[in-house]
Each structure stands twice: as C-alpha cells, then as structure tokens.
Backbone:
C-alpha cells in the first residue's frame, strides 16, 4: 500500500514528533526540508544567504527547497510513499509538488494540518531539545531527555526567532491551507493533548483516507 502525505503546521506543532511514529508504522521515509537544510548547513554546503534566512526565521527561496524535494523523492526508498514534514510552505511550492507528482503519475493522499494554539507553540519550540546522535526529539517539560542524551538546542528555537517563525508561518498558511482545502485533501487535526492521543487522531485520519481510496 502506498501513502503520500504532507504535514503542515506551525513551528512546534508536533510535526516531527508525529512524523517519526507514522513513518515507522507505514514504513515510509520522513522527508523534512528543515532537517535537510540544517544538514547542508552543518556540512558547510548551504549558501550564506540561506543560512541567514534560516537564522532570522524567514523562508529560504522556493526553488531551493523544491529541488531538495525533487531529488529526495526520486530515491528508491520513497517509491511506495513518503511523509513531507515542513514542505510545502507556500502555494508555489504546493503547485510545484503537484506538477512533480503528476509527472510521475502519482498524487498526494492527504494533507494533515496540526492545529495548536499560539500560546503553546512558543513553549513547545523554546524548550525543544534534540539528541544529536539519535535524532530523537525531547522537551524539557513534556518529554524530558535521559541523562546520557547528547542534546542540541536549535539556533532558531530562541524566543525572538520563534516569534518571527510564527509570523512567517501565519503569512504563508493564509494561502496554503485553503489551497489544499479546495483540492479536498486537507484534514485538520487537534494537536493539543498527549503525544499518543494526537497520534491516534492522525492514524484515524490516515486509515480513513486509505479505506476510501
Ligand atoms: P515541529 O516539528 O512541528 O516543529 P516537534 O515535533 O519538534 O514540532 O515538537 C516541538 C516540541 O514539542 C518538542 O520539544 C516535542 O517534544 C514537543 N511536543 C510534540 N508534541 C507534543 C505534545 N502532543 N504535547 C506536548 N509536547 C509535545
Ligand atoms: P523547520 O525545521 O521545518 O522548522 O524549518 C527550519 C527553517 O528551514 C525554516 O524556518 C526555514 O527557514 C527553512 N525551511 C524549511 N522548510 C522550508 C520550506 N519548505 N520553504 C522555505 N523554507 C524552509
């Protein structure tokens, strides 16, 4: 069974956390443009103007992420599906994705939007920590890391940058969510509650869409 889906949601909504569970369950790769850009930055291959865009909480140019997605979704492990986490973020990105999939005779099954009120997002993002070795996502209050974790605090997870990222998100989703709603693909999910509770809601939505297809 194939499954091609997109996770949309503001920074800190829980996309990465839920993506890991869903990808394990459906045996599909998690494709995060944010992770790919951070990896390029760590390798020193990300152009300086993109590094600055990320540091300020703005978006990198559409063409840059579209090319990353084109190349990554072509790989063999994505033949039976994938979960796009943090892409698309603009309507031109969504249109480019449609074209790309169409050219391969594929289409998206569902776009899951995780809804979390703004008051919670700041705390979720600023107290997020990631284990550098395993990629596991922790939270200093809601999912405390074990003592031996090798923790990283993302440079853009500080209050002033998170505020900019939230503003950037609000501006870009103004168009993106209606775009997918019109296409009949959008499923909004309440992202408040325990991680396991939210997972159940997401799994329910995915099972429903696969039953109907
Ligand atoms: P995103 O990928 O959408 O930016 P993450 O999945 O990295 O978000 O989650 C942001 C932070 O919130 C992390 O520290 C994560 O541990 C925490 N988190 C995720 N889901 C929940 C939840 N349902 N309840 C409480 N904290 C959560
Ligand atoms: P994320 O890990 O999804 O929070 O992304 C971190 C940063 O990478 C964002 O604040 C943007 O600067 C950049 N980025 C990630 N995905 C995209 C995208 N689809 N379009 C533009 N910029 C992106």
Residues:
């Amino acid at each position: 069974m194939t499954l091609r889906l997109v996770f949309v949601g503001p920074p800190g909504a829980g996309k990465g956390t839920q993506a890991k569970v869903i990808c394990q369950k459906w045996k599909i790769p998690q494709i995060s443009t944010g992770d790919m850009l951070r990896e390029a930055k760590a390798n020193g291959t990300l152009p300086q103007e993109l590094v600055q865009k990320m540091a300020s909480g703005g978006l990198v140019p559409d063409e840059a992420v579209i090319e990353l997605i084109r190349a990554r979704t072509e790989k063999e492990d994505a033949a039976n599906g994938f979960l796009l986490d943090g892409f698309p973020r603009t309507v031109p990105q969504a249109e480019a994705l449609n074209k790309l999939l169409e050219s391969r005779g594929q289409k998206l099954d569902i776009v899951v939007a995780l809804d979390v009120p703004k008051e919670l997002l700041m705390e979720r993002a600023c107290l997020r920590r990631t284990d550098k070795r395993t990629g596991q996502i922790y939270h200093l209050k809601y999912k405390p890391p074990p003592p031996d974790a090798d923790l990283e605090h993302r440079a853009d997870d500080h209050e002033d940058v998170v505020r900019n990222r939230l503003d950037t998100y609000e501006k870009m989703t103004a168009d993106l969510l209606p775009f997918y709603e019109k296409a009949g693909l959008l499923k909004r999910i309440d992202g408040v509650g325990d991680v396991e509770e939210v997972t159940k809601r997401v799994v329910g939505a995915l099972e429903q869409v696969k039953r109907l297809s």
